[in-house]
Specification:
Chains A, B: Belongs to the group II decarboxylase family. Chains A, B: InterPro entries: PyrdxlP-dep_de-COase, PyrdxlP-dep_Trfase, PyrdxlP-dep_Trfase_major. Chains A, B: Its cofactor is pyridoxal 5'-phosphate. Chains A, B: One of its GO terms (biological process) is gamma-aminobutyric acid biosynthetic process. Chains A, B: Keywords: Decarboxylase, Lyase, Pyridoxal phosphate. Two copies of one chain form a homodimer. In chain A, 43% of the residues lie in helices and 12% in strands. With 505 residues, chain A is of the alpha/beta class. In chain A, the strands form two sheets. Chain A has a seven-stranded mixed sheet, sandwiched between helices. The longest helix of chain A is centred in the last third of the chain and has 34 residues. The first copy, chain A, has three domains: 92 residues, Aspartate Aminotransferase, domain 1 (Alpha-Beta Complex); 247 residues, Aspartate Aminotransferase, domain 2, CATH 3.40.640.10; 122 residues, Aspartate Aminotransferase, domain 1 (Alpha-Beta Complex), CATH 3.90.1150. In chain A, 57% of the residues are buried. Chain A is built from 16 helices and twelve strands. The interface between A and B is large, with 172 and 172 residues.
Chain lengths: 505, 505
């Protein structure tokens, strides 16, 4: 049959004509899968074409009319399913496009993607060695490499891959509480004094969210002020701890951030570690975004002090470019994850199995079923080696320096932080129409500039970059340079595109 | 070039030779991906071959020697990566094999798998309409269909797809607490009396785990006794609630189970709903496993009363066969998910965007980044339609009746529950050597039979089925018939295989 005839044939088939319902029909099964793969190939090719649009933006109500998303009464045939696949991709945002600077997690590493395809096909669950022997050992191997990079002693520390950094932070708060107040697990919070936690005002909101979930209360998660580049002020932390103690609260958890979401700041870890030691408080570092720098000998000093942490959150789906989701929570205290989360569900995690059940991870997780997030990361890491990551990260740091320098020298642009510590560059753009206004009026107008430019970008579909306000500062852009696809020319493009859009504002 | 030459060429390349690092080199990128896909095709074909082994079991220490899992200093070439892919699959457990009866989540639906491949390629994050317009609308559409099936009024209720049922249950406990005691979110548990929750002794351990995480305490999560088929005894529930109140505790949350993990029992929802109403307690139903039955008009009556629930957990990755992970938590109270989880992180979820931001889901999630679990389910559901699922589910129920009947009539087998309610069949097997022992001795020997048979099965690699003890009952097998690939002959095979292995015990 010709390719057209093959397509014609499978288009009229249904899922029931494929494996496993039609166990003999491998040929059509393969042809269907191959058609899906061809659609994905086209998408990848287009995503990597700088001339292609990042998105074809439509308002929600309009988008609903463009797409039929309904669940039908009768099965749809394979041709209709293939059409669905194409349509969905047509209206999706190309997060791997080299000019998508909108999120910390972006880019599409083809090796990691291939890894995720394999993960889907293997479709297993990370809770026991019994059903995930290879992936469980792989997780152990990768964890021990990451522990080494964190700087803990070999074989010290334990970790679990979690669905995102927010849940990793929740694991850390919960483990810290169990370490200091083990009675809470059986008896609840009524048996302990009023607990409190600390994090910088620039930290990720998940630290506060964990306080809500754990029954500590968001008002007992104190925001410590930051300095002019976004780093927690250690003296302010210690002052607040002392004040809380004086008021009868029990401080037990400090979260420092290595790589804040907006400014990319690194809190001064050694000083915070000292304070935690002095006050016998759990020292957590949220390195979800910044952790990847450990792979660069040139920049890992920014994380020095991390080795003193009691726990660390680190998301390989951020700087390291693994596909979403890939996050881990590391705990320096052996056995604590088990003690905290174990519910002794013998009906699931039998102790009389024919292998060493200490390899099973179910009892140390808050989840029961757990997605395999390790393979895509492991395969990608192998494809780069330590050396490849080092080069990739150092290159991104150079691109950041280049971009910062360029916008500083370009009329209309103003950086919020003179020398960004990391891959976030925060800046304002003043269109010609507001440049010569007096300060107050200019700032009032500035507040609306970034949303307007962003809306226009989305309409044009050429590039995307995020914005937000911060405290008294009007809306500003936050550029993220974490996609390995980015070139110097892409950065020039963004600068020119904003100028172009700003002309008419 | 011949296929061999193509392979030869790409084997010596590195990831840096592919997109996006080498933006022009689509041809090699495609060839590499295609090689991975060919490996996956071989795996799928083999997995669906009943003669193939489900696993090639090795002890952890031995497995470590068979596989090189290390992270190298230098990049590995594409040939080595392909070899890694093959090796990993070679030692993985084929959870989609038609004779893998070990877990509730198993099988490999090719359409759902193709969906997950697309999800990987689209690699986006479910927190805003801005970067996931199509998938956000799709989640809304699927949620409204599921809400309809649950039996809530149209447009009533809200839901979020979560990483597994345990986290979905955690969402429910947290939302219920916020509903009854909104002050806990800002002020913590010290502002409320001692709270307590209730669930049956046969329920999933994640209800207890949620009590631990939330600071309620596992001792304040009371296990209500079950009847002889594993259903919660409503009178015992009410008695316990009254007793708790008398003792000064504040009951606020009851979790009924629709489809228990071991026996597949359905708690009597209407009676439990009555009790919850009488005592003004939140009524949650953990239908992670049983929820799928709503798609069968013939069996959905088992869930009647579900429409009275305040919240429901339902995992499409169980009965409905979506790839892991695919779980959702439904909350009947509009806006409650937002109120509970919102942390007002304006720096991420701006309110001045150029579209209706009520479509953004970030503020109603406990997570920040959220994996796209909807597409693989949506595509699969379309491939089956309502009709296809109905047939698939009814067929599985027939297979269960067949299997139960057969083992009842086969010497050496004994069922624990005469007429299983669902797709779990629990049974003992007495090998000839112990059949004629006196009761006490027989039971002592029986305890070790299931683990021995299981170990032997794993060695032989022919089939897999789980076992566990329960209260005073010695270890028994728990058969799960949820993989659409299963045939009557596969069930016969299992019965014979156990007899075969049991001969020599």
């Amino acid at each position: 049959m010709s390719p057209e005839e093959v397509l014609k044939k499978i288009e009229n088939l249904h899922a029931t004509d494929l494996l496993p319902q039609s166990p003999e029909n491998w040929e059509d099964s393969r042809n269907f899968l191959q058609q899906v793969v061809e659609i994905l190939y086209d998408y990848i090719k287009e995503e990597n074409n700088r001339e292609s649009k990042i998105l074809d933006f439509h308002q929600p109500e309009e988008m609903k009319k463009l797409l039929d998303l309904s669940i039908p009464e009768k099965p749809m045939n394979l041709g209709e399913l293939l059409k669905s696949c194409s349509e969905v991709l047509r209206y999706s945002v190309k997060t791997g496009h080299p000019r998508f600077f909108n999120q910390i997690s972006c880019g599409l590493d083809l090796v990691s993607m291939a890894g995720e395809w394999l993960t889907a096909t293997a479709n297993t669950n990370m809770f026991t060695y019994e059903i995930s022997p290879v992936f469980i050992l792989m997780e152990k191997e990768v964890v021990s490499k990451m522990v080494e990079l964190i700087g803990w002693a070999p074989d010290q520390g334990d970790a679990i891959f979690t669905p995102g950094g927010a849940i990793a932070n929740l694991y850390a708060v919960n483990a810290a509480r169990h370490f200091h107040y083990p009675r809470v697990k059986p008896l609840g919070m009524s048996t302990v004094p009023t607990l409190c936690t600390f994090t910088s005002e620039d930290s990720h909101y998940s630290i506060k969210s964990a306080a809500a979930v754990c029954g500590i209360g968001t008002d007992h998660c104190f925001n410590i002020p930051t300095d002019n580049v976004g780093r927690m002020i250690p003296e302010a932390l210690e002052e607040k701890i002392v004040q809380c103690k004086r008021e009868g609260l029990h401080p037990f958890f400090v979260s420092a951030t290595a790589g804040t979401t907006v400014y990319g700041a690194f809190d001064p870890l050694p000083k915070i570690a000292d304070i935690c030691e002095r006050h016998k408080i759990w020292f957590h570092v949220d390195a979800a975004w910044g952790g990847g720098l450990l792979l660069s000998p040139e920049y890992r000093h920014k994380l020095s002090g991390l080795e003193r942490a009691n726990s660390v959150t680190w998301n390989p789906h951020k700087l390291l470019g693994a596909l979403l989701q890939c996050s881990a929570c590391f705990i320096r205290h052996d056995g604590l994850l088990f003690q905290t989360n174990q519910m002794s569900a013998d009906y699931l995690f039998q102790q009389d199995k024919p292998y060493d059940v200490s390899y099973d991870t179910g009892d140390k997780a808050m989840q029961c079923g757990r997605h395999n997030d390790i393979f895509k990361f492991w395969l990608m890491w192998r494809s780069k080696g330590m050396e490849g990551y080092r080069q990739q990260i150092n290159r991104l740091m150079h691109l950041t320096a280049y971009f910062t320098d360029r916008i500083k020298r370009t009329e209309g642009y103003e950086v919020l932080i003179e020398k960004p510590e990391y891959l976030n560059i925060c800046f304002w753009y003043y269109p010609p129409s507001i440049r010569h206004l007096e300060e107050k009026e200019k700032n009032a107008r500035l507040e609306k500039i970034a949303p307007k430019i962003k809306a226009k970008m989305m309409e044009r579909g050429t590039t995307m970059v995020g914005y937000q306000p911060d405290k008294q500062k009007p809306n500003f852009f936050r550029m993220i340079i974490s996609n390995q696809a980015i070139t110097y020319a892409d950065l020039d493009f963004l600068i020119d595109e904003i100028i172009e859009i700003g002309k008419d504002l």
